[in-house]
Amino acid sequence: MVKLVGIAGSIGDESYNRMLLQFISKHFKKDVDIELLDINDIPQFNEDEDDGTNEAVLDLARHISGADGVVLATPEHNHTVPAA
């Protein structure tokens, strides 16, 4: 079975993108295993502060590395992606 991770690019609990990933995960569960991940604990990138040891980032990277693919559901604000 194909293993995917789904990441909603929104930190909102009522995010349409999160709901879309949940729907896809349930609707296609016979064909694909989709693990839903969130970015709530991922800090915004700051090159001056990034030392590669943030546990939330490392955990997200482990999940992505163990998957066959990634599905990104990203909101759109003012014709671009949001900061989160």
Tell me, rounded to a whole number, the average pLDDT: 90
Instruction: Tell me the β content.
Output: 15-25%
Number of strands: 3
What count of structural domains?
Answer: 1
CA-based gyration radius: 14 Å
| General form | flat
Q: What can be said about the biggest beta sheet?
A: 3 strands, parallel
Ends: how far apart?
31 Å
Number of helical regions: 2
**What CATH architecture do you see?**
3-Layer(aba) Sandwich
What CATH first level would be assigned? Alpha Beta
Q: What portion of residues is helical?
A: 25-40%
Low-confidence segments: none
Strand order of the largest sheet: 2-1-3
Considering the protein shown, what is the CATH homologous superfamily?
Answer: Flavodoxin domain
Structural class: alpha/beta
Order of helices and strands: EHEHE
CATH topology: Rossmann fold
